[in-house]
């Protein structure tokens, strides 16, 4: 059994990691590290774990942890990993980091958008961007994976085939993304209070969301060219789910059948990505609680554009599920282990 | 006091008309016509009207109605107005129709998108598109107004200034719109059931929504050129509200300050349209229950695009409130009569 | 025009006061006092007021305020009124206080349940409990009204007739109340965050909620006897609405018709209380946004109990609407002024 | 591997059965019978099953099914099982029925409350009421189990210890239950539409809900006496979850500690029932998606009553999860097989 440690387990992504790992046939959680709840049982913080996982939250000890765990998931606030990840990495740990810190190749891009110094730039050359559908081979060889952001995951899975084959004008890409509120984390600010969010929606951080450079980095690799996009996130009154509606202009004529072929081929062996047939479109509850990404495609002949709708669960394929998928790859387990069950739909 | 008749009062737009007219200083509801509830008190169908408006629903009598009402609102299913509106119009009624039937100049466009013969094409030359911010003068002289659709209202108010001054490439317009479920009407299909809609979102009718030609008709008038757009509606788990996020490429450089000036000038005398300053952005609860449209503007210098977010309440500015606004104009009342109160926000 | 001041206008009850007073034919808001937002326009704090009410929030000046206002609504945190209300009252102000401070006859009861010294016990003999359906005559003569709590309002309106006529065993009363989240106020704690409240429900403060003694005080007056009840509040994932389901054992046989008569008589002249006929039952959206209370009655012959369901909007009849109703009575205006419009239902 | 057939798989309880059985280590779904979707893949009806379970829905063949399945779950509309269950039972099938048809000992009680003839009264002597915490031994020997209703499950688990030890007056029991909308099933009526349910709550079927006699049957067995209760269900704007708040008068003085001991003892070996300590109380999200029941206890010394709050997921412990638990018992598998994972909480 793989021994797993989770640092920062008590945010929503952390607790989803716990949920998924409880069902993993090859892994067992041995260490739950949470600064806020040291000494408390995890089931006292999260009562849904009563009788299922009652282990105690511990303080971080970077000396002992490498010996206690085969893999460590880190879910720390942005930019705080400098004290945590370098020592663990040096000590030989296999690490999957859920923050943005190790997603970027260029520390300067990180610093421009996150407005803070990069906490451990020396590790960036080793770190691999943890989107399996694009970087499986490199992930398999990595000991440090930067788990992708939720919006980028939905967007990149939605765009990759079209960009890869060069079907679209990469200057024309517009991503209009909508997310449930759990994407903001286990927050206690007025902005994310029930009464301020319920029965309401809005765009935010328009033309300035920090996920933009992450998406552009990966699209540029696929396109072998610098790609710049418009990315607009929106807050939606629900807990889980991301729907990215993506617009791009076709370079040449393409039928829906042709587009479905491109996507069908690109994802034909992928266990977690499903392309809807016949112009049908996904809704987020189809992937709620699961690690799947459902994609619908439309060709708008009137405007010579394609419209892609890409649906994921922001906490699963957008965070914890993808992290477990990366762990499976890095530790040479079955890639779908612990991720094979249906989501909950209703 | 203006005597008002409402035909088809028992849908959600109809019942919003009732709510707004109850508070109108110059109008009184004298006739509620509802095929489904003939003989029932409106407060038995809608208990929130108990003790406030208890009048009985009646059957339609196109002979008597003109004498009983100074203005008639019609909220009938698409394409069914042929038996209702022509006789009332001939009899001298002032009519505001909430269906799509009288929004179009060209019956052929209607027939192409609504896939049915136009119910009364002979009236189209007389009908005026009821968006006051664009057609106030013509509305004032009209006796038949086609009240705009909800998505088109949010979209047109969001785009009109930029299109009018020629600041954007009208071939580049993309409208990503999100709506609460009341836009579907008082429906009892599985698709709009609570369990299928709650905690879920999806795009629908991508590249084929019937509001597309309506938006294009009006933008083409503003642009003095044929405009074709991409329009994508989405269903959001809330009752009221539309947020239209609109993308367009700038023809020339423009600063945010410049864009705010354009919008500020265009709407400076408009009582119901508010442009947010300083890059702040609206959320739909700011307009819930009110006839206002709140607009936020962003200039994305990286992509040379503008992003407009336009928020309305689909039942008010998107339907009943705009209908009352049109009535006020047509009958030479104060334009804000019955529409001056704050929405309910929480 | 009555000049109105609102102290503590920026909580949810305060902003509902603003909404209702904007539509009041005889009152105008002249002073908005808010410690948190001094110098800011109220429409910058609450954008739904843009273009409707743009006045600036001011600091409290207990010397000037009496001359500027004919009536003052105070919506301060519990127990903090000692610095505010006594000076205003001495200066001759007419005050409606939305806190619990002036609801009690006995300061000792207040101190036992609120666990703090009463801020101004010297004013208790003058203060009147502001439930018009029970104390209209006294309210009309008062200059200081303690506006009732939301749960007590729903409960007392639901029970008063049965208790008054002695139809039930007052030792048997059980009140199971459910409330939307706005009852917690404009909070920013984790407990009231969207993700913690959405798709969730729970009981809280069982057998210890501070509204219990308030309900018992008023029932004891009606019963002319000490009444002790079980009161259980619950948090429900919605913004507005209280439903109180009340159980009591009949002293003697009583038919549903008999019970409906008792309630019909008790409330026959009340503009804001409606008894549902024929065993139909109210839902909270029937009163959302309105000052009405809708009551449904059942006689459970199998257990010799009556079950009363009483629905109000916690922010309106449970707070701001009732406060305006009290103002109307205290200032000898039409009691329904500013409260006559329908709620919004959908 | 146990071969499982599900008849009526396409309702919400049916699809939860599919979800849970997909994760069951000892069972595999071999037959999905659905009248409505014959010939369609289950993943075309429920897209969350894409790539996980793509088997085709078949027509019912009562001749073939017994040979194809080791156990059959039936989820048919009330009263329609007469054509289905008797032939399967005679053929030797092990059957767990999710309808109310086989919960009752007395066909006359069923007929009085369900207002239809009992479909197969000859099977009632063999059928066992499928609440494991009360009837494990009999379930283990049964071939036909009537899976309990959702409200009765929450209520009986909440009351059983107190009734069993005789701590409460069984004439005083009041059950105020609140349920999410999925309890109404996969409905397409106006009453359960999103706009009619969202932001709304109400009581319904007061003093007449069909779950009342089911609860009374089981409480009477525990009490060894006829028990009659008041039961009031409420509809809450969320999808999953039941919270039953139960009131009963103590026969003798009892401290909270004493009450916790009674419940702790009664449930000490139960894997799915958890009693909260120290007066803490459960919320439904603690059991969302899981087969657990969480119970909180309060002693109200002022009224000499106990108040029990019992939380379950109506689709899991209230239907599908309990059905799987019964299957495990009937087929001598580990009782927690397929039910051991955490729920999803957020």
Automatic annotation (TrEMBL), chains A, B, C, D:
<feature type="active site">
    <location>
        <position position="150"/>
    </location>
</feature>
<dbReference type="GO" id="GO:0003942">
    <property type="term" value="F:N-acetyl-gamma-glutamyl-phosphate reductase activity"/>
</dbReference>
<feature type="domain" description="Semialdehyde dehydrogenase NAD-binding">
    <location>
        <begin position="3"/>
        <end position="142"/>
    </location>
</feature>
<dbReference type="GO" id="GO:0006526">
    <property type="term" value="P:L-arginine biosynthetic process"/>
</dbReference>
<comment type="similarity">
    <text>Belongs to the NAGSA dehydrogenase family. Type 1 subfamily.</text>
</comment>
<keyword id="KW-0028">Amino-acid biosynthesis</keyword>
<keyword id="KW-0521">NADP</keyword>
<protein>
    <recommendedName>
        <fullName>N-acetyl-gamma-glutamyl-phosphate reductase</fullName>
        <ecNumber>1.2.1.38</ecNumber>
    </recommendedName>
</protein>
<dbReference type="InterPro" id="IPR036291">
    <property type="entry name" value="NAD(P)-bd_dom_sf"/>
</dbReference>
<dbReference type="GO" id="GO:0070401">
    <property type="term" value="F:NADP+ binding"/>
</dbReference>
<comment type="function">
    <text>Catalyzes the NADPH-dependent reduction of N-acetyl-5-glutamyl phosphate to yield N-acetyl-L-glutamate 5-semialdehyde.</text>
</comment>
<dbReference type="InterPro" id="IPR058924">
    <property type="entry name" value="AGPR_dimerisation_dom"/>
</dbReference>
<keyword id="KW-0963">Cytoplasm</keyword>
<keyword id="KW-0055">Arginine biosynthesis</keyword>
<comment type="pathway">
    <text>Amino-acid biosynthesis; L-arginine biosynthesis; N(2)-acetyl-L-ornithine from L-glutamate: step 3/4.</text>
</comment>
<keyword id="KW-0560">Oxidoreductase</keyword>
<dbReference type="GO" id="GO:0051287">
    <property type="term" value="F:NAD binding"/>
</dbReference>
<dbReference type="Pfam" id="PF22698">
    <property type="entry name" value="Semialdhyde_dhC_1"/>
</dbReference>
<dbReference type="InterPro" id="IPR050085">
    <property type="entry name" value="AGPR"/>
</dbReference>
<dbReference type="Pfam" id="PF01118">
    <property type="entry name" value="Semialdhyde_dh"/>
</dbReference>
<dbReference type="InterPro" id="IPR000534">
    <property type="entry name" value="Semialdehyde_DH_NAD-bd"/>
</dbReference>
<dbReference type="InterPro" id="IPR000706">
    <property type="entry name" value="AGPR_type-1"/>
</dbReference>
<dbReference type="InterPro" id="IPR023013">
    <property type="entry name" value="AGPR_AS"/>
</dbReference>
<dbReference type="GO" id="GO:0005737">
    <property type="term" value="C:cytoplasm"/>
</dbReference>
């Amino acid at each position: 059994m793989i021994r797993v440690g989770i640092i920062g387990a008590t945010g929503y992504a952390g607790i989803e990691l716990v949920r998924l790992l409880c069902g993993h046939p090859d892994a067992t959680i041995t260490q739950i590290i949470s600064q806020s709840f040291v000494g408390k049982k995890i089931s006292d913080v999260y009562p849904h774990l009563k009788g299922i996982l009652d282990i105690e939250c511990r303080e971080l000890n970077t000396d002992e942890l490498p010996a206690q765990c085969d893999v460590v998931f880190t879910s720390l606030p942005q930019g705080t990993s400098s004290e945590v990840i370098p020592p663990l990495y040096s000590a030989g740990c296999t690490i999957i980091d859920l923050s943005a810190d190790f997603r970027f190749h260029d520390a300067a891009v990180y610093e421009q958008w996150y407005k803070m110094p990069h906490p451990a730039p020396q590790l960036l050359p080793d770190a691999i961007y943890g989107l399996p559908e694009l970087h499986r081979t490199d992930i398999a060889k990595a000991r440090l994976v930067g788990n992708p952001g939720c919006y980028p995951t939905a967007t990149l899975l939605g765009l990759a085939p079209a960009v890869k084959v060069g079907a679209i004008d990469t200057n024309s890409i517009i991503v209009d993304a909508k997310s449930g509120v759990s994407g903001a984390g286990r927050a206690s600010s007025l902005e994310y209070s029930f009464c301020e969010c319920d029965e309401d929606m809005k765009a935010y951080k328009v033309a300035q969301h920090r996920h933009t450079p992450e998406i552009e980095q990966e699209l540029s690799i696929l396109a072998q060219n610098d790609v710049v996009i418009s990315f607009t996130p929106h807050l939606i009154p629900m807990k889980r789910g991301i729907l990215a509606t993506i617009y791009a202009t076709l370079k040449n004529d393409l039928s829906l059948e042709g587009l479905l072929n491109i996507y069908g081929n690109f994802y034909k062996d992928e266990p977690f990505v499903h392309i809807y047939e016949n112009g049908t479109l996904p809704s987020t509850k189809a992937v709620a609680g699961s690690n799947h990404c459902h994609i619908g495609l439309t060709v708008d002949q009137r405007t010579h554009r394609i419209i892609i709708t890409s649906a994921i669960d922001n906490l699963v394929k957008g965070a914890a599920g993808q992290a477990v998928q990366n762990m499976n790859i890095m530790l040479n387990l079955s890639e779908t282990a612990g991720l094979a069950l249906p989501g909950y739909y209703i």
